[in-house]
Amino acid sequence: MIKYHLITYGCQMNKSDSERIVSVLEKSGLKPTTQDRADILILNLCSVRQSAIDRVWGILRKTKNQTVILTGCVLPADKQKFQNKVDLILDIKDLPRWPEKFKIKNLIPDRIGDEIKNFPEVHPDYFSINPDHSSKFEAYVPIMTGCNNFCAYCAVPYTRGREVSRPVEDIIQEVHTLIIQGYKLIILLGQNVNSYKSKISNFSLFERSLAEGQFLISNKISNFKFQISKNTSVNFPTLLKLISRIPGDYWLSFLTSHPKDLSDELINCFKECEHLIPYLHLPLQSGSNKILKAMNRNYTATDYVKLIKQVKQIKPMVAVSTDIIVGFPSETKKEFEATAKLMKKIKFDMAYLAQYSPRPGTAAAKLKDNVLATEKARRRSALNEILKKTALNNNKKMVGKRIEVLIEKCNNKNECLGKTKNFKDVKINVAPAFRQEKIRPKGRSYTIKKDLIGQFAKVKITKANAWNLEGKLII
C-alpha cells in the first residue's frame, strides 16, 4: 500500500485545495501517514511569502528516498528553481487528472492504477471534486479563484490566473449539502469575493425554489437541476442572500474582500442576511496613501476608514481583522507612522502583520528593497503592540455577556475551545454539572458528559485577554 503525506502552506484557499487533493489521493488508493513514513510527499506551496519557499527548501534538504510532488501557488521563477529538485510539479487546476499522471509516472501500482478507470470522469473544473473536509462542522467553500487586481507585491494573479467564478448552482448545492450534513460554520472563499459574478437562466424560479426549500428532495440536492443562460447575473451580495435563505442552524462567513469593491449592497448584507456572522476581514496593507498607490491598491486611507464606519453603523458588534505589510519599498518612517496612527484609530480586533519580501515577477520586485530587515522587524513589533491594546479593549466589552459559541475542541482538563459569532477564540471552563468522573489506574479524571464538539453552546464571558476570551459553559 502506497502512503502519502501532505503539507499545506499559505492561505485558506490552499487549505481548501488540500481537502480536494486528499479526496483524489484516497480515491486513487493512497493512504495518509506521517512525513517520515510516506512514500509520496506532497507540498501544497504558497509563493506569496518568501518564508514559505524557505521552509520548502528546508524540507527538500532533509528528504531522502521519497517521491516529492509540488503543487499550489507556485510562481514561474520558483517553479524553475524547484524543477530538478522534485519529481513532479502539478497544477492544482489539473487535479482531476492527477491519478492519470501518477499512473504514467508509476507512482501507484498497476492494481490501483486499473481502479482509476472507475474514477469520476475528468472535469475541466477541479472544484467539481468533492472535498474531504478536515473538520466535521467547519467547511471552506471556494466560490471563485484567481485575481484581476495585480497588487504590486502579490503573486496570486501569476500563480492562480485571472478571476473565474464558480456557477451559483454549484455553490448553493455544495453549501446546502454541508448544512444537511450538520456543518455549523461555512466560509466562502475567494481572493476577492467582492468580484464574484455568475449567471443563471430563470432567476425568479431559482430564488423562489430556494426560499421554499425545494432544494431538498429525498435528501438529494442533485435531483434539483438548473439551466444556465446569459440572462441573469448573480453578484456576491445576491449569493449571500440566496445562501442565507437555506434553512438550518449554521453560521456563514467569507474571505477575503478588497476595500475598493466593498459595496453598500454587500455591507447591508450584515443586516439583511440572517446567517451571516458579524466578522469582516478587510486587508488594509498600509495607512499611507503614497504606499497604497505604489502597491496599486486603488483606495485611500480615508476610503478605508469610511468603509469601517459604515460597516459598524450597520453592525455595531462586528469584529474587523486586516492584513498589513511593513517595509514595502521606499516606506519611510513617516509613512509607517501613518499606518500606526490608522491602526489606533480603527481599533482592529486582529491583524496579520507581514514584513515585505519581494516576489519574482511582481511589479514591486523591480523596486529596490531598501528597508532594512531589522527595521521591518521593529515596525512589525510596534504594530503588534498597538494591536494587543486595541484587541484587549475590544474583548473587554464582551465580559459579562452570554453569547453563542461554536465548540471546536475539548480536553481532559475540563476545558473546551470555541469561536464566538464575531470570530473570537474562547477558552471555556466546563462546570461540574457537565462533567462525569472516570477512575483510571493513575487516578481520577473527568470527561465531558455531552459531546459538545461541533455544537453551539451558551457561554458567559468572564475574562478578556488580547488574543482570546475566557468563559463558563452555561448550557
Automatic annotation (TrEMBL):
Transmembrane segments: none annotated. GO terms for cellular component: cytosol. Residues 133-393 form the Radical SAM core domain. The lineage of its organism: Bacteria, Candidatus Kueneniibacteriota. Its cofactor is [4Fe-4S] cluster. Keywords: 4Fe-4S, Iron, Iron-sulfur, Metal-binding, S-adenosyl-L-methionine, Transferase. Catalyzes the methylthiolation of N6-(dimethylallyl)adenosine (i(6)A), leading to the formation of 2-methylthio-N6-(dimethylallyl)adenosine (ms(2)i(6)A) at position 37 in tRNAs that read codons beginning with uridine. It holds the Pfam family TRAM. The keyword Ligase does not apply. One of its GO terms (molecular function) is tRNA-2-methylthio-N(6)-dimethylallyladenosine(37) synthase activity. Gene3D superfamilies: Methylthiotransferase, N-terminal domain, tm_1862 like domain. This is tRNA-2-methylthio-N(6)-dimethylallyladenosine synthase. Its EC number is 2.8.4.3. The keyword Magnesium does not apply. It is an enzyme of class 2 (transferase). SUPFAM superfamilies: Radical SAM enzymes.
